[in-house]
Specification:
Elements lengths: L1 H7 L3 H21 L4 H20 L3 H21 L1 H12 L5 H4 L2 H17 L4 E5 L6 H4 L3 E6 L2 H7 L10 E5 L2 E7 L15 H12 L3 E5 L6 E5 L2 E6 L1 H12 L14
Parallel strand pairs: 1-3
Antiparallel strand pairs: 1-5, 2-4, 3-4, 5-6, 6-7
Length: 263
């Protein structure tokens, strides 16, 4: 009966209000996930909960202390994460506030495939990481931050030989190249075939630890590999790569059958 009365008093604008707040919190979560801001956010949450109980039980001195601590914590948070906040505000200004929901996966895949065709035709090596649910901010920090809108031309330029960034990995967040020249963790699996180079070992290492997917282009053979969940599908063509990316990033009922495990 209580729940029935509660729902009868909910207005349409209450639902809109709750939805907006939920989306804002989701955006903030995407902003800080994979960074040291997560630990600071936990600290903020603890202070908030403690403040609530202090006020609830009328602990005046503790309430005063926690409110002042809350103010200091917010200021520290802004100072420490000013770079991330600037990036978020920039995306807000360009209408990319909820990029995860509204990013064009078709555009992302098409631009990558066009670049892959170009790079493999010239036997240029490449390491392309696509972030999914697990944040890769710590790896982005190891490279050169870009936050540049993804395009075939930019990908081709980054991986051109004799450029500073071509040996590292690029990390894609939504439809942006978040960083270039990033360093990935190498797989520690002792059974990896010896013919696998550093790029393949790095792709396996990252996907063993996260849900990211990695595209590896070999400069020795011009071959294409797709790595997901510590499993490598080697020697695929660009059409197979495109279908695989569509099934992973735009899932349907049927799932892709992966190649043999890199062991």
């Amino acid at each position: 009966m209580f729940l029935l009365n509660l729902f009868t008093h909910i207005r349409f604008f209450d639902v809109v209000d709750i939805t907006i707040v939920a989306l804002i919190f989701y955006w903030l979560f995407n902003l800080i996930k994979g960074t040291k801001a997560v630990q600071m956010s936990i600290g903020l949450a603890i202070i908030l909960i403690a403040t609530f109980f202090a006020q609830r039980f009328e602990l005046q001195t503790l309430t005063w202390l926690l409110k002042n601590l809350w103010t200091i914590w917010i200021i520290v948070f802004i100072i420490v994460f000013q770079t991330e906040l600037q990036s978020a505000l920039a995306r807000l200004g360009t209408g990319k506030i909820f990029g995860y929901y509204f990013s064009d996966k078709t555009y992302l895949i098409d631009e990558i495939i066009k670049s892959v065709n170009y790079l493999t035709s010239l036997k240029y090596g490449a390491l392309i990481v696509i972030e999914r649910d697990v944040g890769l901010q710590s790896l982005i920090e190891t490279g050169v931050k870009m936050h540049a809108y993804l395009s075939t031309e930019l990908l081709n330029t980054i991986f051109a030989p004799n450029t500073i960034l071509h040996d590292g990995a690029i990390i894609i967040q939504h439809n942006e190249i978040a960083s270039a020249g990033s360093i990935l963790p190498l797989s520690k699996d002792p059974h990896i075939p010896k013919q696998f180079g550093t790029r393949h070992r790095a792709a396996l290492g990252l996907t063993e630890e996260t849900d990211a997917i990695v595209i590896v282009l070999s400069e020795e053979t011009g071959s294409i590999s797709l790595v997901k969940g510590g499993i490598i599908s080697q020697g695929i063509d660009s059409l197979t790569l495109k279908k695989s990316l569509e099934e992973i990033l735009m899932p349907k009922k049927e799932s892709f059958t992966w190649g043999k495990k890199g062991k």
